[in-house]
Inverse folding.
């Protein structure tokens, strides 16, 4: 085998290894979400409803009732979350961690209108995984999908302390759109 063939073969093998590595880490995913802080647990992210209210993890998390409010008009401590990338998933999934290090859980994997979200998980299992994806026609607006394919919806577009979040939507109806900002930078930009 001449030197030209050896170099070509080595370059092909290197490209294959690079593509495999990128696909395993999620960097070459077909999903269009580009995580700004992939796996960085130190980033502070706020999730804003369609009507401009912020999601609040009541008590900073650790609850199974009165878990999420959608009536905050400014970002305080309980309105900050960490988006933790789960690189083994394709498309990329995220765990949403509260300020006191608990994870949001879509009860039953989604598809609910009552007892929808808990914030007491200390480990990431399937129900703590969410897909965050951009709406193609909107700039910096995202959907949050549960593990079983339902969209999180801020009832009434936000502004509530009871019946705040549902997880039963299967198509975009408007109130399932969220703006996500991390450390004052729009997520995915």
């Amino acid at each position: 085998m001449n030197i030209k063939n050896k170099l070509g073969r080595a370059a092909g093998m290197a490209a294959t290894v690079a593509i495999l590595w990128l696909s395993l880490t999620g960097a070459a995913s077909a999903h269009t979400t580009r995580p700004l802080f992939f796996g960085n647990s130190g980033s502070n992210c706020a999730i804003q409803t369609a009507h401009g209210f912020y999601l609040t993890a009541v008590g900073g998390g650790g609850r199974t009732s009165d878990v999420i409010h959608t009536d905050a008009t400014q970002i305080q401590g309980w309105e900050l979350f960490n988006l933790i990338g789960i690189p083994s998933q394709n498309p990329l999934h995220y765990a949403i961690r509260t300020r006191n290090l608990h994870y949001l859980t879509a009860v039953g994997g989604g598809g609910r209108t009552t007892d929808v979200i808990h914030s007491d998980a200390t480990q990431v299992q399937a129900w703590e995984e969410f897909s965050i994806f951009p709406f193609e026609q909107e700039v910096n607006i995202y959907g949050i999908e549960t593990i079983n394919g339902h969209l999180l919806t801020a009832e009434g577009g936000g502004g509530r302390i009871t019946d705040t979040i549902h997880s039963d939507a299967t198509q975009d109806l408007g109130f399932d759109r969220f703006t996500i900002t991390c450390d004052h930078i729009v997520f995915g930009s």
Observations:
- The first strand starts at residue 45 and ends at 48.
- Residues 3-39 have pLDDT under 50 and may be disordered.
- Residues 1-30 form one domain.
- Residues 96 and 167 are 15 Å apart (CA to CA).
